[in-house]
Amino acid sequence: DINGEATIAGKRSTRVFIAGKPSDYMSSSIADLVSVLPSDAIEKIEVLTSPPAKYSSDGDGIINIVLKKGFKIGLNGNLAATATTRGNYNGSGYLAYRTDRISLSSNYGMRTNINKSSGSSFRETFTGDTTYYLNQFNHNNNQNGGHNFRTRLDWDIDQRNNLQVSGNLNFNRRTGNSHIDNEYADDERAIKSIRKQDNENLNQSSNQVLDLDYTLKMKKNKDEKIVMGINYNANLSDADRNFARTFFTPDGTPTGIEPTLQRNENEVENEGLQISLDYDKPIAESGKSIEAGFRVSLRENDNNQFSEVFDSQLNSYLPNERLINHFIFNENIYAGYASYRTRTKNNWSFRAGGRAELTSMKIHSRNTDYQLSPYINFFPNLSLNKFFKGKYNIGATYNMRISRPRENALNPQVENSDPENISFGNPNLKPSFTHQFDLSFGTYSSNWSVSPRIGFAKTLRIIERIRTLDADGVTRATYENLASSESFTFHLSGNYRPTKKIRTNAGITLSRVFYTSEGNNAFNRDGVSFRSNAGLSFQLPKRTAIEGNLNYTTNSAAQGRNKGSVITQFSARKSVLDNKLNIRISATDPFNQRNNTVFTEGTNFRLQSFSEVATR
């Protein structure tokens, strides 16, 4: 989407995994980690709308990026470089060497991106019979750079034993500046005062990941195996931000109010350890299999914010006690799972599984400790499928998922880079639980396929970001547990190949959401979300191809809705030198810049925000 987040159509919360491991534990920013992962190092991408019990129960769906292992005997690899008219550059290299028993692969990626965006918002504030207005205009300019190095060893010690070791290093640096104009208007929309703000920021981060997996195959049945794994990850980020605020009359004359100078520094450290043990036993020729395993996930988030403001009388910066905070979050999850799968001779398949998790959390915020009791949950997972007449497939699935509040939603430290719209976390949040039901149907022939799916999801104690407006004219955004929500989803995707050289594909997702809150009737809203995509590709003579893709999304929320723009990309590719060299030229959003409109409504205000990102 416009914020660089990946989601599965119709799913509220999507997690991205890399090589079977959750990427959000490996980096403070998923987008930073994925953006420097060379595409040539990717073997395939698995989309799991109903993840098996083996996977973490967090999130409504999982996208798993499977990396190449270097299957070709001998030395092979590639180099790639990309340059854009907006000043963005990417480079990557992938190298693999394989014998009959050992595979060693490494990849490196770097990027330099220039991100420019602008936005505006218009807020109406209702006070009794009077309405006041606030107009905001902002411009942002950021430059991002990053490097990623990953290496992997895959060693078949003998026919029964395999060892895999991989390491990942990632470095990112972001610098930028922004400007915000605030116009304060009375009930007749006449501007009474203006505040201008200039911001500067510097953010540096790094993360390290070490993976170790050992596989033991059984003597009597080589498909029966035990896999033991250890994953250690750590990342560090340091963000420095400077704010300068000045005040003017409507004609641009300084008001005489002393300018405000503020400096913030955030240091964040994340550290995690995951230990896994999996047992997989296919039962030969019966179509049955048994899986079981155990997981331990230990992680800590340490976020230290220091803030100071300039005192003109003392001519020095003084600590801003209201914004200083030290937040420490520990989360330990102990999980065990088991699943059974069977397939009959008449092409029925059935999977039943369950996952039990014990969660223990501790939260410390400066001088306050929040008492959280450990809790145990059981997550069932069922699926039934039938394949018949060689071209039809029907299926039904049920699973229960959990959305645990992340550290950014729990951290109560105040973010006031825009003093008119501050935000903070809520350490009293509880996890939400979702029951998901899906009915799917698929049919295909040699040149077309259609796959409709109907889904129902009921979420209890749903976590939503809620915005309120206080008497001081400042909106405060934080996370709250609403009572529940119910959503009905229809998803339809398909492709058609009229000739061997032409392929088309399209998909739509339509969701109807009903919010129910016992504590606040203002959140008892209904909403419709719509997502669509379409693609067309041509294979031309002389190893040439052209393609185009379009996407559009509009989403509902508890307090309003988000409306995005059409996202388009067109490209042409040609292979030369016996496919050793590929040349590609593409146009992204040639008809418009990517934009997003957000409508938010509270009990005493209405807010319309518009943002535009330079993507053309």
Radius of gyration: 27 Å
Question: Major sheet: size, sense and barrel closure?
Answer: 20 strands, antiparallel, barrel
> In percent, how helical is the residue content?
under 10%
**What's the end-to-end separation, in Å?**
15 Å
Quaternary organisation of the protein chains: single chain
Beta-strand percentage range? over 45%
The computed structural class is mainly beta
Overall outline: globular
Question: Segments where pLDDT lies below 50 for 5+ residues?
Answer: none
Query: How many distinct beta strands?
Result: 33
- For the residues shown, what is the average pLDDT? 88
- The tally of helices reads 2
Q: How would you characterize the overall build of this protein?
A:
The chain is mainly beta. Helices cover 2% and strands 70% of the residues. The chain has helices spanning 30-35, 407-410; strands at 14-18, 21-22, 42-48, 61-67, 74-83, 89-98, 102-127, 130-156, 161-185, 191-217, 225-248, 260-283, 288-311, 316-319, 325-343, 348-365, 368-370, 375-388, 392-403, 421-423, 432-444, 448-460, 463-469, 475-481, 484-499, 502-516, 526-540, 544-557, 560-564, 567-576, 581-588, 594-601, 605-613. The strands form three sheets. The protein has a 20-stranded antiparallel beta barrel. The protein has a four-stranded mixed β-sheet with strand order 2-1-4-3, with no helix packed on it. A three-stranded mixed β-sheet has the order 20-24-23, with no helix packed on it. A hairpin with a 5-residue loop joins strand 9 (161-185) and strand 10. The radius of gyration is 27 Å and the shape is globular. The chain starts with 13 loop residues before the first strand and ends with a strand.
